[in-house]
User: Which sequence fits this backbone?
């Protein structure tokens, strides 16, 4: 059970000023978790706004209405109409009275109503215990993480970036982000062996959103822009208003031919096409505006990409009926193909198990034989969420990932015999900046997180990552040298930086 701070106003109003001290004491619990408890309530008052968007008919007792609230993790209060027997569940409550034309949560007198944040039967239970600490490590995560630590900086030619904030010089461009690095396909006639897709953000008012550019390289260190597609623009957002990807698109989940961390990062072809999941947004009203989502794209050459279904998302945007962990926004995907199964690892924003807003990582699957997992007849996605999600959950308030355990990149480490996930972490112990963290698994479901990041923002000698270091792409060359690209954010803007397992300066 969880408390929400919004309940405090209702408690003060219900109990009166003399009990304000008791209500203040309750705030200690309200701020942390939601709790639908038993106790006295108030009669004839409605929390006028904040409905969960539905009501239940034929509810005749306050206990039954409260029980419906208890069963819904997003419910913080309930209202029973005693004459119509309708039970309303509330996502937001407030102790403030309604003003004329009020649009914020407020309370107003109503006839034949009983409303309260509490259940009516029995004594109030004891406050819930504090959250349990995470379980002890079951894998030797510190040892397993050593091959991914203490890498060298490669100082790029663009103020330290290898891909600068204005790479490609697209109209309205304000930044670059989210590199995906791989080897060219046999159909690709552009020069150089390596490819790097990146999103760029259009900062033009009314046209806000992401599209995807391409860079090419002969050595994974020095990159050229403006090649392929339309002057380097290789995947464009949907131009149909109302489409799930009208606001912006970003390639993230390329279908690799091999999940091994050190194998060539080459694209896999199915039915004569290369495939990728992409993150997207429905609105051009602002930065990452809307509830997010994911689509499927394909390419015949690994250079220019097209959407596979313009009206059928692989993962729809967040809705009130979504699981709590993904109830606000759905973000970036990443595909893993193993054991005849396709996995879509992704992060989403919602409410974590401690009742706090957070980003966490889960996954969906389909049998590989059903790929790309789009039912064109029924016009729906075939990908099913795993019940264990979120499998990489956010941590306790003082941990490195209490706010974010997101943007997963998953590989199999052959040398150590485990799956590895490199992810974005931000939490109470990271000082307000995003770092790069790591977790390990033997089955892709149960993950053991290392307690400390493998890279902490702020160390780049050019000063380009003092704010954030996150959103990685990892590739190894034929000599076994690793190249870890990451989005660096600092006083010089947002672009792509590089760490290498062997000094390449």
Assistant:
């Amino acid at each position: 059970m969880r408390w929400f701070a919004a309940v405090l106003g209702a408690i003060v109003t219900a109990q009166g000023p003399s009990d304000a001290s008791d209500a203040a004491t309750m705030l200690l619990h309200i701020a942390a978790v939601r709790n639908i408890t038993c106790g006295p309530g108030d009669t004839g008052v409605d929390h006028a706004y904040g409905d969960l968007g539905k009501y239940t008919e034929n509810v005749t007792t306050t206990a039954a209405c409260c029980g419906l609230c208890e069963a819904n993790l997003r419910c913080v209060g309930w209202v029973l109409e005693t004459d119509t027997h309708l039970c309303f569940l509330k996502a937001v409550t407030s102790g403030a009275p309604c003003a004329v034309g009020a649009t914020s949560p407020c309370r107003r007198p109503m006839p034949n109503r009983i409303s309260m944040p509490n259940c009516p039967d029995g004594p109030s239970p004891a406050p819930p215990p504090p959250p349990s600490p995470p379980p002890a490590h079951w894998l030797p995560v510190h040892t397993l993480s050593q091959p991914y630590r203490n890498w060298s900086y490669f100082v790029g030619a663009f103020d330290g970036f290898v891909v600068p904030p204005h790479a490609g010089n697209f109209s309205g461009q304000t930044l670059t982000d989210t590199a995906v690095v791989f080897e060219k396909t046999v159909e690709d006639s552009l020069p150089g062996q390596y490819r790097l897709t990146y999103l760029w953000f259009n900062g033009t008012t009314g046209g806000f959103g992401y599209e995807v550019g391409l860079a090419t390289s002969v050595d994974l260190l020095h990159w050229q822009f403006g090649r392929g597609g339309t002057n380097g623009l290789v995947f464009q957002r949907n131009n149909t208003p109302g489409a799930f990807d009208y606001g912006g698109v970003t390639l993230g989940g390329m279908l690799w031919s091999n999940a091994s961390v050190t194998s060539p990062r080459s694209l896999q072809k199915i039915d004569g096409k290369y495939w990728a999941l992409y993150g997207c947004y429905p609105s051009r009203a602002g930065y990452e505006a809307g509830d997010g989502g994911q689509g499927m794209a394909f390419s015949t050459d690994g250079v220019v990409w097209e959407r596979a279904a313009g009206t059928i998302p692989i993962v729809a945007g967040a809705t009130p009926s979504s699981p709590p962990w993904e109830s606000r926004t759905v973000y970036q995907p990443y595909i893993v193909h193993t054991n005849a199964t396709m996995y879509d690892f992704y992060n989403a924003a919602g409410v974590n198990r401690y009742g706090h807003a957070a980003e966490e990582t889960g996954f969906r699957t389909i049998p590989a034989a059903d790929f790309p997992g789009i039912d064109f007849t029924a016009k729906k996605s075939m990908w099913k969420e795993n019940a264990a999600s979120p499998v990489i959950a956010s941590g306790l308030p003082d941990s490195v990932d209490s706010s974010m355990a997101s943007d997963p990149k998953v590989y199999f480490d052959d040398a150590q015999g485990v799956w590895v996930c490199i992810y974005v972490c931000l939490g109470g112990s990271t000082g307000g900046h995003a770092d790069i963290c790591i977790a390990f698994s033997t089955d892709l479901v149960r993950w053991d997180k290392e307690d400390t990041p493998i890279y902490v923002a702020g160390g780049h000698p050019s000063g380009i990552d003092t704010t954030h270091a996150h959103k990685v792409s990892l590739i190894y060359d034929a000599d076994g040298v690793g190249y870890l690209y990451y989005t660096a954010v600092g006083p010089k803007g947002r672009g792509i930086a590089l760490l290498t397992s062997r000094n390449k300066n």
